[in-house]
Specification:
The chain has 15 helices and five strands. Strands 2-3-4-1-5 form a five-stranded parallel beta sheet, with helices on one face. Helix 14 runs antiparallel to helix 15. It is elongated and about 75 Å long. About 0% of the residues have low confidence.
Length: about 325
């Protein structure tokens, strides 16, 4: 029923049973971290609810309602998104007026409210009144980031559909599918950085981030014999990192992740995780180049510089300090 929803068995099971049993709630809350398929699933569920050929195991794709939904013109599907940073009170008031009329073609109307965690209290209270006395033949689908608080009264009036981070390997496959230019190793690193949330990886500056990361690791693993060469590499990497803008924090996360994985490889030894063949070539080289204390010190340097940047320290200077210390200069 939900071909585009991967790795969310509990959510798919709850929604499938609602459809199969014909016991539909008046409101569903798709709750979970960013980038794990909440909005995709809500749209798939909307298409099923609006399909005129019920009982087909999914939207038929051929009825007038399905055709209109695919083209973004279904009159019985209302999609409310934040205006700027929030869903505003006037959007909720306009929605209430629209729900005063019956559905036009489908047996029911579906309202998808995206990112309801952005609502301020006034808009949330207005939505609560709608959830308390929902008009007949209307189903509300709410999506929310579970890291942000919602009014408990809204939670109590919705059926919760929980979403979770995906296994990193599955997230990497999805990321690789979405961006065919990535190598499997790059997709895996982005999946790790995104915490198993493939949609979150779309927000990363991939074109600038990954090349900067790859060059940093390459130069750190092969710094050269002379201090002058190491200083040159450190300053070049600092310049590239400072130019990343929003991607700088993500670069720090990738470097931190690399050093921690290298520490884990040392602790597990050659027999850990299926032996040396299962380890990334760079991790193998890092394990030979640095010991646990050195790797731990490098992680602490990243943390120190990240905190300095959070206090509005000069970006270029902070990046220079970081790479000079990582090269042990």
């Amino acid at each position: 029923m939900f071909p585009d929803t991967l790795g969310q068995n509990k959510a798919v099971g709850l929604l499938s049973r609602s459809l199969e049993n014909g016991r539909l709630a008046h409101a569903y809350l798709f709750s979970g971290p960013e980038g794990v398929g909440k909005k995709t699933t809500a749209r798939q569920f909307s298409a099923m609810l609006l399909c005129l050929h019920e009982g087909t195991g999914g939207p038929c794709g051929t009825c007038s309602s399905c055709v209109q939904f695919s083209s973004g013109n279904n009159p019985d599907f209302l999609h409310i998104k934040p205006q700027g940073a929030t869903i505003r009170i006037d959007q909720v008031r306009t929605l209430k007026k629209a729900l005063g009329y019956p559905p036009l073609e489908a047996p029911r109307r579906v309202i998808m409210l995206e990112d309801v965690h952005t609502m301020r209290r006034e808009a949330g209270n207005s939505l609560l009144k709608l959830l308390e006395e929902p008009p007949p033949d209307n189903i509300l689908l709410l999506t929310a980031d579970d890291s942000e608080p919602l009014l408990p009264t809204i939670l109590s009036r919705c059926q919760i559909i929980p979403f979770y981070p995906l296994p990193v390997e599955l997230a990497a496959k999805i990321i690789g599918r979405q961006n065919s230019s990535l190598t499997p190793g790059e997709a895996l690193r982005l999946a790790q950085l995104a915490g198993g949330c493939p949609g979150l990886a779309k927000t990363f500056d991939i074109e600038g981030l990954l090349p900067a990361y790859e060059e940093a690791i390459s130069r750190l693993l092969d710094p050269g014999k002379y201090e002058a060469a190491r200083v040159e590499s450190a300053l070049l990497l600092a310049l590239q990192a400072a130019e990343l803008k929003e991607g700088l924090e993500q670069l720090f996360d990738l470097l931190r992740l690399f050093f921690k994985e290298s520490m884990l490889a040392i602790l597990q030894g050659p027999e850990g995780r299926g032996g040396q063949r299962s380890l990334d070539e760079h991790i193998l080289r890092a394990r030979e180049r640095w010991n646990l204390q050195q790797l731990s010190d490098m992680v602490q340097v990243i943390d120190f510089v990240a905190k300095a940047l959070a206090r509005n320290c000069n970006r270029q200077m902070a990046c220079e300090v970081l790479f000079l210390k990582l090269f042990n200069i």
